[in-house]
Amino acid sequence: MRSLKSISVSLALTVALAAPAFAAQCGNNSGGFNAWKTAFAAEAKKAGVKQRGLEALANASYANDTIAADRNQKSFKYSLDKFMQVRGANTIISQGRKRKGQNAGLYNALEKQYGVPAGVLLAIHGMETGFGGFMGSSRVVSAITTLAYDCRRSDFFTPHAIGALMLVDRGSITSNTKGAKHGELGHTQFLPGNALRYGVDGNGDGRVDLYNQTDAMASTANFLRKKGWKPGQGYQQGQPNFKVIKQWNAATVYQQAIAIMGAKIDG
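User: That's the sequence. What structure does it adopt?
Assistant: Structure tokens below.
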């Protein structure tokens, strides 16, 4: 069951998502970032961000590496075979089978609760961070606020920037927490707004920590279930749950790879 804390955070994020359009002016270089932060701080405060979150925003810096990565996502343009080769599909499948066997109790419990098979969760875990081997070196708050400021996809990233600041407020991350270039965090690389909305306490310690593997796996399963996963139904192309994998990542080649690897991990 979700904790009251998780429910209250979800409600707060819902309010933020429903708030009027942000007045902060986007930009395409670092020149206007500080002015944007000032304007965005006022809007974030209206959305419910508290002092710690506002301080993290004030300390955020323009992330040039994030912008470079956002403009250069070449791997999603590969053929399926090339994509799987580049992303190490055979290793992910092998390691996924091993990890499933080593922690069968966890994955059986997650499938019982959420209906999502181990193979899908392990394929995502392997694809996103090499099973936690590398969860990113970019400062999450700086990365996600840079993308919210950047004009290319400001509307998409703005709620996630608010989410990141709310995560700081609740103590889940700090202004120095590291994640991926696009501000994704934890073992399976949740965008901050999704971390707030779908994150769950999988290990029962009273907090949601997506840098904890059990919490991350439970949260990933919860995300997929909330997005429409149908327990017991297939997840290959043309089957009911394939469209739910699309909710995790918009790239077709990624979706195909997860479906294929998941099935091979599940055997």
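The chain is about 60% helix and 0% strand.
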